[in-house]
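Tokens in:
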């Protein structure tokens, strides 16, 4: 069985990030905190001592040396899972090649090694400078790229990966693992997208199945676009209530431009430890939902996201969701949603939700 990892490069540098993507396209996934001398294979004790030398040790007091060595141990603990990656393991790379997309890579050895430390000499003008020498070899022909809001499974990946914020993460969540597998197989929520690798001889039955499911998604979306807006809101309510959510409010708005069509609440089962510490502790999610009936591209879609933002109470575990039957969201809306943490569900994803949960 493959294992799953999330490796975050996320430099934000307009020069370094494209260079790292070019390396990924060549089958080399690079990670930072990798200056000369910091090969992970040397082990913790040697690495922590090398960490002091790697980042300079001139005029360090004993207290500073101890602090630097402690920092090195922490860095080693974060990066060490790279040594556990074996051929066939799945690796998710967020915000590559752009901030609104992510990659799924498959580990593949070169000369028998998945992990190597690149200690080669670099030119002065190399944008990677003396860093990003940790390398995971991947199969460049099996590189898969997705948008965070492409379909149900990418939405799950986007939501679940928030729990994995370290530079290198082992992924244990079964739902996230399943979503990754669905994407690799070309599955979108319950509909299958043709993503057959070159040379893959897909059988005729699978071709028919894929076409039928894609057609079903398209037909459901067209039907959703024809119903009255208040019926569309009821459909959304039905989807959530079928999954155990409680509808606690409908059609709220304020004079300041805020607007919510539905508010759902999910009461989660508490952990026995938390119940012992505080028996009255209530765990749950509050979802503020805005539903828009549109087609094509809604050029004013950012307005709906702003309406949701204006209705936030600031409560813990409160989330905003903009559902639209439009084909896609404008770049302005996507950027706003990313910045303000508004979840976007476009028409195709909405139709997939309907097929999967209704």
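Residues out:
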């Amino acid at each position: 069985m493959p294992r799953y990892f999330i490796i975050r490069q996320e430099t934000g540098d307009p020069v370094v990030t494209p260079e790292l993507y070019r390396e990924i396209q060549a089958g080399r996934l690079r990670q930072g905190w990798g200056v000369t001398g910091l090969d992970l294979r040397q082990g913790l004790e040697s690495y922590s001592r090398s960490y002091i030398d790697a980042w300079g040790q001139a005029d360090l007091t004993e207290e500073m040396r101890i602090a630097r060595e402690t920092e090195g141990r922490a860095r080693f603990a974060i990066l060490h899972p790279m040594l556990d990656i074996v051929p066939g393991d799945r690796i998710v790379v967020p915000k590559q090649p752009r901030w609104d997309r992510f990659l799924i890579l498959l580990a593949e050895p070169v000369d028998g090694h998945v992990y190597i430390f690149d200690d080669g000499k670099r030119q002065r003008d190399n944008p990677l400078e003396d860093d990003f020498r940790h390398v995971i070899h991947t199969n460049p022909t099996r590189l898969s790229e997705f948008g965070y809001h492409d379909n149900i499974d990418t939405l799950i990946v986007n939501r679940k990966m928030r729990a994995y914020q370290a530079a290198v993460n082992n992924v244990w969540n079964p739902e996230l693992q399943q979503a990754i597998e669905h994407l690799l197989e070309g599955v979108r929520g319950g509909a299958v997208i043709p993503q057959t690798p070159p040379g893959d001889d897909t059988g005729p039955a699978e071709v028919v199945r894929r076409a039928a499911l894609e057609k079903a998604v398209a037909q459901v979306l067209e039907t959703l676009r024809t119903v009255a807006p208040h019926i569309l809101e009821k459909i959304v309510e039905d989807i959530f209530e079928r999954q155990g959510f409680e509808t606690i409010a409908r059609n709220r708005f304020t004079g300041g431009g805020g607007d919510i069509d539905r508010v759902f609440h999910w009461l989660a089962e508490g952990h026995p430890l938390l119940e012992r510490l505080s028996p009255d502790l209530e765990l749950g999610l509050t979802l503020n939902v805005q539903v828009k009936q549109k087609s094509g591209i809604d050029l004013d879609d950012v307005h709906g996201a702003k309406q949701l933002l204006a209705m936030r109470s600031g409560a813990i575990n409160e989330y905003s969701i903009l559902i639209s039957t439009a084909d896609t969201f404008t770049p302005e809306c996507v950027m706003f949603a990313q910045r303000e943490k508004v979840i976007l569900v476009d028409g195709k994803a909405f139709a997939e939700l309907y097929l999967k949960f209704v």
